[in-house]
Amino acid sequence: MSEPQHSVTRLPAMSLRERLAAYEDPADFDERPAGESAVGLVSFGFIWAAVRRRTRLWVTLALVGLLVGGGYYAKSPPAPKATTILLLVDNPNDNPTDAAETDITLAQSLPVATAVINQLGLRVTPSSFLNAYSVTDVTGQVMQIVATGTGSADAVQIASAVAAQFLKFRAQWAVSQQAQTDAELTQQVDQAQQSLDSITTQIKQVSAESSSPAQQAKLSSLRAKSTVASTALTQVRQYATATRASAQTVTQSMVRGSEVLDAATPVKTSSHVKGAATDAVVGMLGGFAVGITIIIIGAVASDRLRRRDDIAYALGAPVRLSVGSLRESRRSALRLGAGGRARDMERVIEHLRHLVPGSSSGPAGLAVVAVDDAPTVARVTVALADAMAKSKRVVLVDLSDGMHAGRLLGVKGPGVVPVNHGGARFGVVVPAVGDVAPVGPLSSHVSPDGYAQPDEAVAAACADADLLLSLVTLDPAVGGDHVATWATDAV
Length: 491
Description:
alpha/beta, seven-stranded mixed sheet, four-stranded antiparallel sheet, 52% helix
């Protein structure tokens, strides 16, 4: 019991639909008392309440993440690593960024991987072996190779082999680039020579012709072209000679200047205890984050009313008693009608006993409205019927969606059924299936003379009763006017 005082809400004459309609104007929400929280707004307090309410979920997921992280480290500990540093000399005529990217591409190429596999006699494919090492550009001309292996010595061996085979392949690539340049220069010289030879041949042919003004003009033109072609050939030869010398110098500097700067050495790793602890903490934080995310999304997406002020605002009535869910460890002791009820059940029953109204004429009626968790409220209602049946003639009316109270008492279907539950005898009324707003025996504006009268069997069973105890679940789409024909008061 969250508050000592008792409060009975008298069922108003207006319908539930009319009371809810009063809140359809958004301006009404702004006129709520300052003490009431804003319904529908997500605040830190709202999120914090959801997190506290579902502590078991995020704690469980955090522990699962802790175990998964520790188990992952135990099953897949980090492989030993080795690193080596290379000093590379690139072509000064190339863009440094492009040259660095080219070096990384060459180091991670299939030919280099194949050469390392052949050198070490490994039984893996070149494509899969590429995952055994990584290449990083440090400063443009400094490259780092990090290799993994089954042990530190194996990692050192792989790193050294990758460095050696890369330098060898890079040297071959540089030589091939020089050979390609030589071929292009030779082609340019040959083309210039062919052009000069063609003009020389034409000059010989024209010189052999009979002399004439036309012949002399043509010969003069060819001799001028020959002079130009000869000059071009000389220039091409000079360019080719200089370019070959420069390319050869660059190639030699790339081949001879590129070397291993730091020999392969094992990488120091943290202790296994520290590594396992780190992975376990990371897994725990991940599980915690997943749990908090699930809780927040569920709280924001859910339309369930959990806070007492929100429920009171939705019902238009004060909530003076709130009871948490009965724990499984207690449920075995909660046999309805037995004397050994749990302490919280006893408090609830005692509270409800004080709310049962008195009546000078006809049966008194109390409706127990289940705002949430109808099965638990049904157990409380049945326990109250057991307690009251010892001194009163009680009829329990199950107006809940799902016949929760009737199922607890073994009632199979609609009608009026006498039950003997735990030594207490009382009647149980279950409305017909499909009757969403069944009319009861009490006088109300819902059932005037000649309109919507209760069933004769129900009226007869309730006529001799001292107390009509109703379990109610409300549907806003239907309304709650019919409850006034079953009860004079509601809790």
